Amino acid sequence: MATATVKRIGVVGGGQMGSGIAQVAAMHGVDVCLFDVDPQALSKASSSISNSINRLVSKSHLSQVAGADALKRLRFTSDLEEFRDADFVIEAIVESEDVKKTLFVQLDKIVKSSAILASNTSSISITHLASSTCRPSQVIGMHFMNPPPLMKLIEIVRGADTSDETFAATKALSERLGKTVITSQDYSGFIVNRILMPMINEAFFTLYTGVATKEDIDTGMKLGTNHPMGPLELADFIGLDVCLSIMKVLHAGLGDNKYAPCPLLVQYVDAGRLGRKRGIGVYDYLKSSSLL
Ligand code: NAI
């Protein structure tokens, strides 16, 4: 499929990534339909996209007309059947292989035969997701970074059967959305998370074993290595549940104990301390003083 023919995108999952991806596509002239199983997530996505676009307009980063046009290109639905006319679908739901596979089976039946099915997964095998469909050559990883409207990178992941045409169309679409592309083969964690997540996990071990406070760990990595955010702050931003899921995939897929998730990360997730999206993770965003 040539990128010029991508007129309508379906985005599945209206959480932090799906809503950001929908916003980017709408701001670059693509009609977008956003689906979520949770009606509350849909209304939250709708207001967060509107707020974000209105902020860009008020700061003169986007003209009023362009902002209004982008908002007109967005549709929100709780009926997946509305994806029938999508040329390209981007999945951004919970990081679980079983849940994603169930969705890919559904999508494969609903969307037209020429459509490409892309996953924004951080770590799950594209080949596995593709094998649950009857169109493995049209399944690909399209990994946006968080937050999608600001981050310039898209990591494209080729599954074992991804065709050159699917790759070319996904790369062209990514560039049309103003992003720079890197390409990874389909191994656990791909490029970015294979390197980033063990660092975040090690920061948890550094905290867990009492080597240093969370503030000193974050300050150390910010001022010592010029990272814009410390690894624990970044984990809260990404979502501790997402970090834990990725560590589990790295551990299972690469088979080395060095990827075992830190018990403290596991405990926080068990306690519902998922990071900024829940108001509490490593840091407490609801109180002025932080925990631990
Ligand atoms: P999130 O938890 O903010 O949002 C997930 C959304 O998916 C929720 O609104 C939920 O209601 C919805 N959902 C769950 N199951 C569904 C289903 N079967 N059908 C439709 N909607 C469903 O998660 P987030 O952070 O947006 O992550 C989504 C995906 O993006 C994951 O695969 C994650 O690994 C990946 N990702 C996350 C990044 C991050 O920094 N959080 C960065 C890059 C990729």
Give an overview of the whole structure:
With 292 residues, the protein is α/β, with parallel strands linked by helices. The chain folds into two domains: 8-185, NAD(P)-binding Rossmann-like Domain (Rossmann fold); 194-278, N-(1-d-carboxylethyl)-l-norvaline Dehydrogenase, domain 2 (Orthogonal Bundle), CATH 1.10.1040. It is 46% helix and 14% strand. The chain contains eleven helices and eight strands. The longest helix is centred in the first third of the chain and has 20 residues, at 39-58. The radius of gyration is 19 Å and the shape is globular. It starts with 7 loop residues before the first strand and ends in a 22-residue tail after the last helix. Bound molecules: 1,4-dihydronicotinamide adenine dinucleotide. 1,4-dihydronicotinamide adenine dinucleotide (NAI) is lined by residues 12-18, 36-38, 41, 92-95, 99, 103, 120-122, 143-144, 146, 238-239, 242, 277.
Radius of gyration: 19 Å
Q: Quick one: CATH class of the largest domain?
A: Alpha Beta
Bound molecules: 1,4-dihydronicotinamide adenine dinucleotide
How much of the residues is beta strand, in percent? 5-15%
Average pLDDT for all residues = 95
Instruction: Give the strand order of the largest sheet, numbering strands 1, 2, ... along the chain.
Output: 3-2-1-4-5-6-7-8
Order of helices and strands: EHEHHEEHEHEEHEHHHHH
The main pleated sheet reads as: 8 strands, mixed
Q: What is the third-level CATH name, the topology of the largest domain?
A: Rossmann fold
Helical content stands at 40-55%
CATH superfamily of the largest domain: NAD(P)-binding Rossmann-like Domain
